[in-house]
Amino acid sequence: MEPALCEVCKDIRLGKILIQTNLDTEEPELHYLRLPKDIHEDYVILMDATVATGAAAMMAIRVLLDHDVAEPNIMLVSLLMAESGVHTVAYAFPKVKIVTTAVDKEVNENFHIIPGIGNFGNRYFGTDVV
């Protein structure tokens, strides 16, 4: 998603937030953070290929809010979201705009969207879940 955005918006400032679900605790964990200086002055497009439960997206939004980004200035963009993820994020952060191409009904015990597309990162990078 990022390369396509950069092709369209040549002068965009990029940041990175890496949040992954701990397979033992099933909780999201922040692994990496690099945000542009003065991000609080900007509108932010928060991109996540798939949003299942919404836990990682909510942590990312909280990180942005902690860096003084105004909630109405955040747009969550996703290729696919589970219905529960949409509701969770919208309830917790009603001023965040949510944009997705599709919403599927369920999340399975592995937190994959059903019917969904499996683990997006594994498909994109050609890797398997360990």
Report the end-to-end length measured between terminal Cα atoms. 24 Å
* Inertia-based shape: globular
Main beta sheet: strand number and arrangement?
Answer: 3 strands, parallel
- The chain-level structural class is alpha/beta
Low-confidence stretches: none
Order of helices and strands: HEEEEHEEHEEEEH
Percentage of residues in strands: 25-35%
Helix content: 25-40%
- In which order are the strands of the major sheet placed? 3-5-7
Number of strands: 10
Q: Rounded to an integer, what's the Rg over CA atoms?
A: 15 Å
* Count of helical stretches: 4
Provide mean pLDDT, rounded: 89
What features would you describe in this structure?
The protein is 27% helix and 28% strand. Strands 3-5-7 form a three-stranded parallel β-sheet, covered by helices on one side. A three-stranded parallel β-sheet has the order 4-6-8. It has four helices and ten strands; from the N terminus they run αββββαββαββββα. The chain has helices at 2-8, 55-66, 83-92, 120-125; strands at residues 16-21, 28-34, 44-47, 50-51, 74-78, 80-82, 97-100, 103-104, 106-107, 113-114. The protein is an alpha/beta fold and 130 residues long.
Secondary structure topology:
Elements: H1 2-8, E1 16-21, E2 28-34, E3 44-47, E4 50-51, H2 55-66, E5 74-78, E6 80-82, H3 83-92, E7 97-100, E8 103-104, E9 106-107, E10 113-114, H4 120-125
Parallel strand pairs: 3-5, 4-6, 5-7, 6-8
Antiparallel strand pairs: 1-2, 9-10
Features:
10 strands, globular, 4 helices, alpha/beta
Short characterization:
With 130 residues, this protein is an alpha/beta fold.
